[in-house]
Amino acid sequence: MSFAETFFNWDVLVNSFPLLLSGLKITLFLGVVAIIAGLVLGLIVALVRLYGVKPARIIAKIYIDIFRSIPILVLLIVVYYALPFVGLRLSPFMSAALALTLVSGAYTAEIFRAGIEAIPRGQFEASQALGLSYRHMMADIVLPQAIRIVIPPLTNNCINVMKDTALASVVAMPDLLKQATQAQALEANPTPLIVAALMYIAILWPLVYLVGRLEKKYRNEVAR
Amino acid sequence: MTDIVSISKLSKKFGSFTALDGIDLNVAEGEVVCIIGPSGSGKSTLIRCINLLEQFDSPGRIVVDGTTVKRGKELARVRAEVGMVFQSFNLFPHMTIRQNIKLAPMRVRKTGDQAADKLAQQLMQQVGIEAQADKYPDQLSGGQQQRVAIARALAMKPRILLFDEPTSSLDPEMVGEVLDVMKRLAESGVTMLVVTHEMGFARQVADRVVFMDGGKIVETGKPDAIFDDPREARTRNFLNAILAH
Ligand SMILES: Nc1ncnc2c1ncn2[C@@H]1O[C@H](COP(=O)(O)OP(=O)(O)OP(=O)(O)O)[C@@H](O)[C@H]1O
Ligand SMILES: [Mg+2]
After folding, report:
1. CB nearest to A141's CB, from B88, B89, B92
2. Which residues does ligand 1 sit against, CB inside 6 Å?
3. What is the span of the domain harbouring residue A165?
4. Of A38, A108, B28, B244, which sits most exposed with the smallest number of CB within 10 A?
5. A201: CATH
6. Is residue B235 within 8 Å of B216, Cβ to Cβ?
7. pLDDT in tens, chain B (245 residues)
8. Is-above-0.90 flag for pTM?
């Protein structure tokens, strides 16, 4: 068999394409769910970490440190295989979404914290001196400025979450990687794997490009 | 005359370091009080206690327009009544000049958009920056930025304006335009408490000058008395050192 017939076999591609497409959908859905949930969780944890009462701040810090230390694969396996022993049985999708969200939330929290801490003290003082409430200070002054700082690292984090969705295939979730390996076994040909790899690149390359652009943009226009 | 601010037995420690040591000071309605003194004497700390940007120690007490300054519900009201102008301007960089001025009246006083717009327009004229209305702070000179900061503080119609060395971070050629605006405010009867190194301004505009050193008020009096005939040796030394420059 020629190189092309092995790695880019047209018949195999046509046969396995529907399967790959369904895997791609699940991968995208899982990634988007985990990214959005991670963003919300991360913002809340960051605010607690910065402005909560002392015990809450400590808990937030511990959460952040633990979930930045644990390998996602380990966490995923714990969630999927260990939690059932305490009566909590989650579907492969739920397990993967939970694991990815917990980890993404920890990273996102650190990104938001760094963004908020990068806002000069004078901005907080000017807001307070004007009589703005805490809510308005955050919503009108601090977060709009922090967002500009955190968008490049947040986009980076999105890329990581999307990549890490592939780990879900180990808990039997029919995501893109899982479908590709199955199709490969079925067809006895690696073409589906190659196509899957190209699909991952196709989703993530634009994001990688975007991060580069954003970083350059925000370096140039300082605060606005 | 009624006192807008009355400060009694005010002390403030940073760790074991005493930054303020038993300050008593009243500012009457319409009065312009200038605070002078060497670096580290506690001038900034003193005015930052008035709107509780700095928490002071008990049993010190500050009353602003009848309201005791402390953490809690009343604090927002005190802060709304007390305007502050910082050395480093602290404008909101992501908002236009107009938005900088309109924000607090709309959020805190619940002023409508149109009314806030009219107010901003009038204040921008008053401080001479109406041509910059739709620019962003980083497109303005330091002097213009500080005049915006004054307009932003005035937009809340405060009972008193606090200034912390408003001209100290300006290039020399821009000091005058800011002092002119402050002079006009003083003449129009705005109550002001001004920390400054501009002795000319203090002498010309202040109703009263307060000299601080080591966290204490060493001497207070009419500008002429302080500048021409200080009673305390420390005041004399400070003025000699400054005027020798
Ligand atoms: N947050 C802080 N923590 C510790 N020490 C502080 C803090 N803020 C001020 N100080 C100290 O308190 C003293 C008074 O400071 P303050 O800023 O009030 O002086 P100042 O009279 O305004 O001086 P300057 O003319 O340099 O502005 C200084 O010795 C300063 O080092
Ligand atoms: Mg100072």
Report:
1. B92
2. B 14, 17, 19, 37, 39-45
3. 3-223
4. B244
5. 1.10.3720.10
6. no
7. 689 999 999 999 999 999 999 999 999 999 999 999 999 999 999 999 999 999 999 899 999 999 999 998 899 999 999 999 999 999 999 999 999 999 999 999 999 999 999 999 999 999 999 999 999 999 999 999 999 999 999 999 999 999 999 999 999 999 999 999 999 999 999 999 999 999 999 999 999 999 999 999 999 999 999 999 999 999 999 999 987 76
8. no
